[in-house]
Amino acid sequence: MNEALGEFEQVVLLAILRLADEAYGASIRAEIEACTGREPTPGALYTTLDRLEAKKMVRSRMGEPTAQRGGRAKRFFLATEKGSTAVIAAQTSYQRLLSGLKLLGGADA
Known about the structure:
Blueprint: H1 7-19, H2 25-36, H3 42-54, E1 58-65, E2 73-79, H4 81-98, E3 102-103, E4 107-108
Antiparallel strand pairs: 1-2, 3-4
């Protein structure tokens, strides 16, 4: 059985998948806000990224230091096959649960 993902873990993984090679802290936060209207705190985001990395659902690498960041490097994230599989399984389960439900005025979900 696949390892369960929390709702915010799914949001973070989906943002990473959308951003591809440009997934780092600030871009992930911006993507989440643009797509969901949520504004995750850096602490919540990095705690989740660390947890996903510990679960081997993402991996990270350090980029080159840049002058714009005061000589600091960006930490880039990439979803692993395990992470992609887990988020697809979670979303598929949600779709099965929604299928056939009559919501908001009787329309199918």
